[in-house]
Amino acid sequence: MTVGKKIFVLKDESRIDPISMETREVLISIYYPSNPVEHESKYISFFEPNISSAVDMLSSMGVDKDYICNLDTKIHNYECVDITAKNCPIIFIAPAFGIVRDMYSFCVEHLVECGFVVITIGATHESIFSIFPDGRFVQQSKEISEIDSLDIHSWKQLLKLRVENISWVLKNVDKVLDSDNDLKAIVDVNEMGIIGHSLGGAAAYELLKREKRIKASILLDPSFHLMTTSKEERVTVQLLVARQEKCSFEELENEISPDLLPLLLSGYESLFNSSDLNSSFIKLNGTHHMTFSDIPIHYNEDGIEQKHSTINKYISAFLEEHLKKEESKFHELLKNKINDGIDQVNSKGHVI
């Protein structure tokens, strides 16, 4: 199957962007099943129409320019929608702090092949860069790049912006689909899920408190220290929380600052204890925080293809069980988790 991609800019006239002091603009990419094409597509096509600026910035961060320019992808910009596809649930993806919304292609390709339409939601001024259809190249703002890891107030403000952005996209998703009859014809707007990574995971969780259209959520190593759990705002949606290999106090005490670690661990424990009884908490052995994105692909990390394959298998099974009503598909998969390098973990991050 070929995956198509279209970009939309959603302007929120009701909000002023705190960085640009202009109308807030939210970039989204919509990925969908498209008609087969004969020509190849390169990863750097994600960065059209300003590929050179994106490649230069990635190169300045240690990415091999020749390697990234020759990396292939199954995703093709603005290809025709495959109108034979039907009843595709919509999956929103909220990226990690700084990560460009299109840098989850490993997951996007797989989900579209499994019959989902995927919408990734950008964070202008927070991502390392944002590229608009008119060619504008907006880098991460200096004030955001300098937020201290323990400046919880500033992080909560950034989280608030993220939640507002995602809410705005959900509010306008029907309008976007109305503008493209072929896309509208293949989606099922009654079945929606959300995947959030890191800061995006915390934002996805906060969204669940106010958005009843979301019926399944996957949190990929989310920012637990920024998440607020309470009986008054209980989230009833079943969660899949997937963590990196190191997730207990013993594993993290030499990895994370002693001031931040207690906040992260207590946030995780609160989430665990307040979640739906049927929610699942797992860790993927051999992974780190950025394994849940394309970043390891950029640096040609050894073994990343297999790790991404495992992540995809569990993500798609969970969403198929809850949004496509393929009964017990995810829970049957869990029975063979040891063979996949997956462990279930308790409230302390210990293997059970």
From TrEMBL:
This chain's source organism reads: Paenibacillus taichungensis
PANTHER family, from UniProt? Answer: PLATELET-ACTIVATING FACTOR ACETYLHYDROLASE
Gene3D superfamilies per record: alpha/beta hydrolase
Q: Which Pfam families match?
A: PAF-AH_p_II (PF03403)
**Per UniProt, which keywords does this protein have?**
Hydrolase, Lipid degradation, Lipid metabolism
What is the name attached to this protein's record?
Platelet-activating factor acetylhydrolase
Among InterPro entries, the record links this protein to:
AB_hydrolase_fold
